[in-house]
User: Fold this.
Amino acid sequence: MKEFDYVIIGGGCAGLSLAYELEIHQKLKNKTLAIIEPRPEYKRDKTWSFWKVAPHNFDDCVKKSWENFSINIPNKTNHLECKDYPYQSIDSGLFYKKINNKLKENSNISFFKSIEEISKKNSFIFNSVPIIKKNHLNLWQHFCGVEIETKNDFFDEEIFNLMDFDCEQRDSVHFFYTLPFTKNKALVETTWLSKMNDNSQKDYDSQIKNYITNHLKIKDYEIIYKEEGAIPLFYPFNVREKNKINIGTAGGMTRLSTGYTFLNIQKHSKYIRENIENISNSKKFEIEKKYQFLDDIFLRVLKKHPEKMSDIFFKMFKASPKTVIKFLSNKSNFFEDLKIILKMPKWIFIKALFD
Ligand SMILES: Cc1cc2nc3c(=O)[nH]c(=O)nc-3n(C[C@H](O)[C@H](O)[C@H](O)COP(=O)(O)OP(=O)(O)OC[C@H]3O[C@@H](n4cnc5c(N)ncnc54)[C@H](O)[C@@H]3O)c2cc1C
Assistant:
């Protein structure tokens, strides 16, 4: 069976981002790479959005970028600006196409559907397949979004809605998220933060329909795209082994309080590329410990007091948006962390520390 210097298991966001980063920095000129990806074909399946706090390789895959956003709870709306760190949405269809076209140019790179097709005993492995064990206490961010096209212009494409909590909470945390790509096209997503043990939360289609018709008051629209997913708000069980590094969700690149993963994947890819010559001895790349600690407390509060979370999110954004964005994007300094912490209801968070 054929052998390769590097094997990437899973050609999704993390696997392809890493392969692309290695390729464009000429790290695969004299090295061979196998990418193991079972999906029969690549097509748009996700919309990756984030505040652009760092450069990345995919500006040409950005579907839309915004400098304004809003967050609301019943009867209150907060309008915020994010000029310093625009919010970008990447179309996964464009991302897959761009990367696959580039990788095809290098004959050192091969694609396989299953790991059984190659010998991996002398390879360095980058694995992006998470090991998830069922645990009824674990929290998930689960969601479904549809891109709709309206007959008449309806949306203000200059401002997106990050969280609209003016909806049924069903003893969990629930909000809608709306990304207006043009005046008549937008992604409308229903999002839950929960243990995913209440199947009634998964009637996504009716939630979305109800929100579009009764809340946004749009009558005439067509669904042109749909995506669905569940992001674990806990670290998967993958561990680092000799000659193997976990990447993406499997590698702990998700910010557990928010589900944001895309930019962390890009930073990890860059780190691997910079250290590729001595990758076996490189230090483990992880989200800074202070965020792991703060997110852990945040999620304990969320589990115990889901009914308070809409207010907590709303209050958090009362700090300057730049500070909140830096905090949520792992870029904040000590004083900025403090500003966010001071916006939180103190006793609940202090109690959660000792739970
Ligand atoms: C619908 C959706 C929307 C999201 N939106 C955002 C967002 O807006 N912003 C953000 O920051 N994050 C977002 N995320 C979270 C995160 O960025 C994505 O999940 C991202 O795709 C994670 O990258 P990954 O490579 O770890 O996993 P994936 O992209 O899922 O890649 C894993 C790959 O492994 C393959 N695979 C599975 N089993 C095997 C196997 N046995 N052998 C080999 N390959 C296998 C899969 O086919 C897949 O291609 C979203 C997640 C989802 C699901």
Summary: The mean pLDDT is 95. Residues 9-15, 36-39, 46-50, 128-129, 227, 229, 231, 248-250, 259-262, 265 surround flavin-adenine dinucleotide (CB under 6 Å). Residues 332 and 338 are 10 Å apart (CA to CA).
